Amino acid sequence: MSDTGSWWRKGSLEADRDLAAAPGLAKRTDRLERAFGSELTSSMSLNIRGTALAAGSAVGVLLLAQFSSVWLDDNKWVVSDLWDNALLLVLTVTVVAFGLAALIAGVAVWPKRRWAGEQQRRLEKLAAGDEEGEAALLLEMVERQRRVNERRGRLLRIGAIAFALALLGTIAQAMIFALEAEPAEPVRTDGPSQAGGDGTGLSAEQELELARRYAPRVWLHPREQYGPLDPAAFVGASLLGWRLRRGFARVEPRGRVSPDRLGSHCDGTPGGCYTHEGYLARELTRPFMRRRARPKGLNLRRGFFLDVADSARPGQAGRNPDSPVFFELRRTPKELLITYWFFYGYSRPHVAPDLPGGDV
């Protein structure tokens, strides 16, 4: 009986010592569990913030694209060169900032660490009764999650700065557009005719006789690379376009342009004059040409143009003596002037091979 009693009392004392130590360890484990739960809550908050930042950046890009399509439309709005370049610069910076914010947010919220392995190890320690090991594992998990949250928080702060910069860029574009953009000229429905007499007082037959009588003899250099060209061949190798501030609108494709629908006498031809935005091909609309005859209100950058194929630029290159020659008669108070010229699809000065620059 005494031996049994001694064993029972000895076992009770060891159990009492374990119970006395258990509350401190249990409290520590409980605190670590709460700390880990707090870090996981912070991680969820960072996920929400990062997702919102990425979504906001995506929406910002979409809205910016819609807004930019308005001021980039040359048919509706016109902005001066200075502010147009400023808008393009701010647009580039804004799009890059939005994209950077979305990229950083995506990197921050992308899942990189899962706790399945640690939780399995914790269960194994619980099953083995290794409470100290469990507490140490919890501490490691808390520290690791804290470091991850700090890194993600820094990334999101950088992303927020990029997002704020993009918002400022969007506001700047809106202010420039509101203060500097003007509606494009209204679409024309008619235009003044430029047809009229030449004022020489001579008939067409008399003008032709004078032109033939006084026509000069012309020699072209045998090695000239670019020679005269029949205008009909030039038009046939060209496309007809309408120049915009950015690019051009195709009016007639290459090879299908009709010379009869161009110029001052195109009204009476089949199909009539080529038209675009209400302007007629018989009007002087050449881009960047400042003339009083230019239609009033037409932006200087806009107008009809012919874009000839590179293969047609050399012309006859001096090999065809029958290249057409054109003339114009003009009467002054004291004399009648005749001007002759060839039509060139492209021209550059000829330099002999033995002269400086002769390899051009």
Walk me through this protein's architecture.
- The chain has 360 residues and is mainly alpha-helical.
- It has helices at residues 2-71, 81-109, 116-128, 131-180, 204-213, 231-236, and strands at residues 77-78, 182-183, 238-243, 248-252, 275-276, 279-280, 303-308, 325-331, 336-342.
- A three-stranded antiparallel sheet has the order 4-3-7. The chain has a two-stranded antiparallel ribbon with strand order 1-2.
- A hairpin with a 4-residue loop joins β8 and β9 (336-342).
- α1 runs parallel beside α4.
Helix/strand-derived category reads mainly alpha
- The count of DSSP E runs of length 2 or more, i.e. the number of strands, is 9
| CA-atom Rg in angstroms | 42 Å
So how many helices?
6
Q: Per DSSP, what share of the residues sits in E-state strands of 2 or more residues?
A: 5-15%
The secondary-structure element order is HEHHHEHHEEEEEEE
Strand order of the largest sheet: 4-3-7
Which regions contain 5 or more consecutive residues with pLDDT less than 50? 1-22, 189-197
**Average of pLDDT:** 77
Largest sheet report:
3 strands, antiparallel
